[in-house]
Write a structure and sequence with these properties.
This protein has one domain: Rossmann fold. It is of the alpha/beta class and 122 residues long. Strands 2-1-3-4-5 form a 5-stranded parallel beta sheet, with helices on both faces. The mean pLDDT is 93. The longest helix is centred in the N-terminal third of the chain and has 14 residues. It has 5 helices and 5 strands; from the N terminus they run βαβαβαβαβα.
Length: 122
């Protein structure tokens, strides 16, 4: 199973989500903008992406547009994270949405629905 790629320009959010998912047993990768996210996706295909809507360099919609053009990435499930009103992101080709602020259970529920429970590690 590929990592859960967490993409957000707010380092505190990236760090908190990464730590939570890692504690639950998921492998994670992170990026602080859309361009870095695309590079990481091409290095290792993620199992899903938690993607911020508004970021510098390349925003969430720009990442989705690039992914749609890439056959290797177009079917990776993406959950858009945003504090913006639904009018901004409802039309985007995402597998799910996570309105900010979200709580731990909302986050874990979305991840489990998208990729299932974390792999067993022994």
């Amino acid at each position: 199973m590929g990592p859960v790629l967490i993409v957000d320009d707010e380092f505190g959010i990236v760090e908190a989500v990464r730590d939570l998912l890692s504690d639950e047993g998921y492998r994670t990768a992170t990026a602080l903008n859309g361009r870095d996210a695309l590079e990481r996706m091409r290095q290792e295909r993620p199992s899903m992406i938690l993607l911020d809507y508004m970021m510098p360099v390349l925003n969430g919609p720009g990442v989705l547009e690039s992914m749609q053009k890439d056959p290797a990435l177009r079917d990776v499930p993406v959950v858009m994270m945003s504090a913006s009103p639904p009018d901004f992101w409802q039309h985007l080709p995402c597998a799910g949405f996570l309105p900010k602020p979200f709580d731990i259970e909302q986050l874990l529920d979305v991840v489990r629905r998208m990729i299932g429970p974390p792999p067993l590690t022994h």
